[in-house]
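Researcher: For the annotation table, I need structure tokens for Prephenate dehydrogenase. Please keep the output clean. Sequence:
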Amino acid sequence: MSESRLIGPVRVVGAGLLGTSVALGLRSRGIDVILADASPTHVAIAIDLGAGRAARPDDRPQLIVVAVPPDVTASVVAAELAAFPEAIVTDVASVKTGILAELAASDADVSRYIGSHPLAGRERGGPLAARADLFAGRPWVVAAHDAISYQRASAIDDLILDLGATLVEMSPEEHDRGVALISHVPQVVSSIMARRFLDAPNAALGLAGQGVRDVTRIAASDPDLWVQILGANAAPVRDILMDYRDDLDRFIEALGDPTAPGARRKVAEELTGGNTGVERLPGKHGTDKRFTTIIVMIDDRPGQLARLLAEIGEIGVNLEDLRLEHSPGRQVGLAEIAVLPEAADRLTDELAARGWRIAG
Ligand SMILES: NC(=O)C1=CN([C@@H]2O[C@H](COP(=O)(O)OP(=O)(O)OC[C@H]3O[C@@H](n4cnc5c(N)ncnc54)[C@H](O)[C@@H]3O)[C@@H](O)[C@H]2O)C=CC1
Ligand SMILES: O=C(O)C(=O)Cc1ccc(O)cc1
């Protein structure tokens, strides 16, 4: 068990994906975790998973993490603030402005509340989808507000650091505009795109490669949760969608007569704008380092990937990232290996010399 900054106990309300993942991460650091949920079955499953224990009447939690759906978050936070007058309370809901406004308008003691949001999740909800390492290396926003007592709020910083996440401070408004762009609108676009597959011929769907899977992965997300998130962040999401409507109109117009003078330039401008935009997304080590990707073909036999990784280790090159592409029914998989540019040529040569087939 590793050292922790938090002392505990930590009470987690909402033993679903997020709550159980927080609880598992804290238990792995030896912290006493109390689990509560409107669903006794979710509490029981989370306890069976080793995520914590049931509540006792004499519990005096240091920190309470509310991980329930957005539409009940403010009322659950208010109830927890009232029930535990010494505890600091945070929540992990995906939208921040409305929850703070609802609490500020109530008689809740907001000097002990500070909202937060880990930018980590999965398409599936519930305790069985939880993972102790869900937050490792991910940004976790703390949505600062004027009424909080900063000395007491340090427990939330400790929670974030104990779970291996990176603390990011933002105002609730700045947070909601940011997540509209990088999380909420992508969800809408992904869902709209995947909806087009409903009446597509099987033969066309059979051609799907990694690109379309990348852009539609989150189309599998829980509609109940997303109806709430989009409703709670409607204005910033609409603003961006209206800009997208203009973008689409430009594309549609340019493709109306693709051979007309200037049409190809317009299409190219849209595409190169995307190239520049995607480069701005921070990678594993931030924005300033780009890696070179080497694609190695691996036979679909047990142990091949492990052998490849072991040999990269023997060659002495550090693996910065790894992605696997595997098409069902094909006898080979593709391992995309990201390394520092200065190591790429040597790794390519040495892997080829050891008999690996380099695809690109
Ligand atoms: N799913 C994701 O990828 C992410 C979700 N979030 C946020 O985390 C929160 C929880 O989401 P998930 O864990 O995905 O949902 P989930 O559906 O897996 O878990 C929610 C849990 O809250 C319980 N619950 C519902 N109403 C309750 C109430 N009134 N009192 C006590 N428990 C109640 C449910 O029984 C369930 O166990 C949401 O606010 C969501 O916006 C934040 C980051 C990522
Ligand atoms: O699966 C992913 O990549 C996600 O982006 C999940 C996610 C869903 C909701 C959030 O508020 C934050 C993260």
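Researcher: And a one-line annotation?
Model: The domain at 292-358 is CATH 3.30.70.260 (Alpha-Beta Plaits).
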